[in-house]
């Protein structure tokens, strides 16, 4: 029994370390070149590459939480889900932001643009909407 627990512990540590590797910039797992390898992301990568954000932010800067552990866990979950959808041919025809991803995007808008939003604060307050509801065309403009 001790041996099994030891190996489970080792696997947990290795798995956790691999999950954290997602956030290592040198691996490029948050870059458009990596995200664009999947054919369902071609339009998103193309529109991003022609946006003002392309020179200052990568995909992970907007779409992942910025904490090392929270960002790694989120990216690992979303990436695994996306690979599953591609392999099983269940990827949606139109990719839309849902659930927790909306909150991650909003937090990252506020983090990067806090100097512009010092008066406005969080646009969701007082029954407001997410930043990207009004500004969705800035990064991923529709063709």
UniProtKB/TrEMBL annotation:
Molecular function terms from GO: electron transfer activity; metal ion binding
GO biological process: one example: anaerobic respiration
Keyword Metal-binding included in the entry's annotation: yes
Main localisation: membrane
Record carries keyword Ubl conjugation: no
UniProt similarity note: Belongs to the NapC/NirT/NrfH family.
Name of the protein described by the UniProt record: Multihaem cytochrome
Gene source species: Syntrophomonas zehnderi OL-4
